[in-house]
Write a structure and sequence with these properties.
The protein is globular and about 35 Å long. The chain has one helix spanning 31-37; strands at residues 2-8, 15-21, 25-28, 41-47, 51-55, 59-63, 68-73, 79-84, 89-93, 105-109. The longest helix is centred in the N-terminal third of the chain and has 7 residues, at 31-37. The chain is built from 1 helix and 10 strands, in the order E-E-E-H-E-E-E-E-E-E-E.
């Protein structure tokens, strides 16, 4: 979907705008996403150059693995971004986008790592890893 979209954190200290294509949402069930979000993470993606920060004084980045970092608000704790090292793309948590988002979940990834307290029953494709 190509259109200007906005989003941000719970306390509104971090605000951003996306001017470009948002890809369908991936629902990631890996253990790192579960730890940072409290459940699985629903994330859309776009080219990082499409994201303009309107306000980012409280945006912090955490190196969550050798290959990736996660962006969050240091004031309210909102999980906002995931960025893979050397990738031109950035992943944006779907819940941080202002409505209407215009995107839908397309598939589930890392389902081999999902927790035992829920089932995936929406009929969408599931991948054991990425």
């Amino acid at each position: 979907m190509t259109a200007k979209k906005s989003g941000g954190c719970l306390c509104k200290s971090v605000r951003f705008e996306v001017n470009g294509t948002l890809n369908p949402i991936l629902a990631c069930h890996c253990s790192q996403c579960a730890k940072t979000s409290g459940n699985f993470a629903a994330m859309t993606s776009t080219a990082a150059r499409n994201v303009a920060m309107l306000s980012d004084e409280t945006l912090r980045w955490f190196q969550s693995s050798e290959m990736a970092q996660r962006g969050f608000c240091a004031q309210c704790g909102s999980n906002l971004f995931w960025k893979q090292k050397d990738s031109p793309d950035i992943y944006i948590t779907a819940g941080s986008l202002d409505k209407p988002t215009g995107v839908r979940i397309a598939e589930h990834i890392f389902v081999a790592s999902k927790s035992d307290y829920y089932d995936i029953t929406d009929g969408l494709p599931q991948k054991a890893e990425w």
